[in-house]
Amino acid sequence: METAFAKLSQRIKKEADKFSGVSGDEIASLSRFVACQTVRTLALEQCIKEPAGGPVDRNTVNAVIIRKMKTMTDAWIEKFPTFRFHTPLPLIGDHFITGDHPVMIIQSKQNEIWLPVDMPSLQNSDLSQLLQNPSYGFWISLSPYICASIQGYSGNEPRLPPETMDLRYVRQFNEYIRGQCKIFTLARDRESL
Question: What whole-number distance in Å separates Cα of residue 162 and Cα of residue 146?
């Protein structure tokens, strides 16, 4: 997955906020990469091992990962989402956390009673339910200065060049990534999930 994405990743890092065009093949590469990074987690491996009552061979784990990735990419082919790109540039006070490219998933809840603020919470989500809801978002940091999101079912063209993001949202994104990493690090048994 990383090999196909590497060329686009290098171009994004080089062009930063001047990144202004993306081909269909690059969107497909980004989609597969986001799907892979979303499902390829320690928590998923633990969830596979738990029902089996012990270790599971690597082929079984890989088969589950590939099946979940296919679920995501099939959903995006059926109902094409909007690809948006964000940057903190030209402001340089903050940048996106990079590393093993964790994916942050956001799902807006439509409350029956209107509330001025819906407090976000960190939790595990059912992939099939998530993809059926048009208000989802998969967010991933592609470089210290570019973040991408795959959102809903609009089917619009990718939004480029990257939109400048207020630094408080960059900090908020980073806090969510830290929180998500903490959950996956601590997710060692059913109770902690």
Answer: 7
Per residue in 31-85, pLDDT (tens digit) is: 999 998 888 877 677 777 777 787 888 888 889 889 999 999 999 998 889 999 9
- Answer yes or no: are the C-beta atoms of 151 and 82 closer than 8 Å: yes
CA distance 81 to 149: 10
Residue type, 131: L
Q: 0.85 exceeded by the pTM?
A: no
Residue 112, phi then psi, degrees to nearest 5: -65, -35
pLDDT digits (tens, 9 = 90+) for 110-155: 655 555 555 555 566 678 888 888 788 899 999 899 999 998 877 6
Among residues 132, 108, 103, 119, the alpha carbon closest in space to that of 30 is found at 103
For 176-180, the CB contacts below 8 A with 24+ separation are 176/104, 176/120, 176/122, 177/97, 177/102, 177/104, 177/141, 178/97, 179/122, 180/102, 180/104, 180/122
Distances (CA, A) of 47 to 71, 97, 180: 18, 27, 17
Residues 55 and 182: beta-carbon distance below 8 Å: no
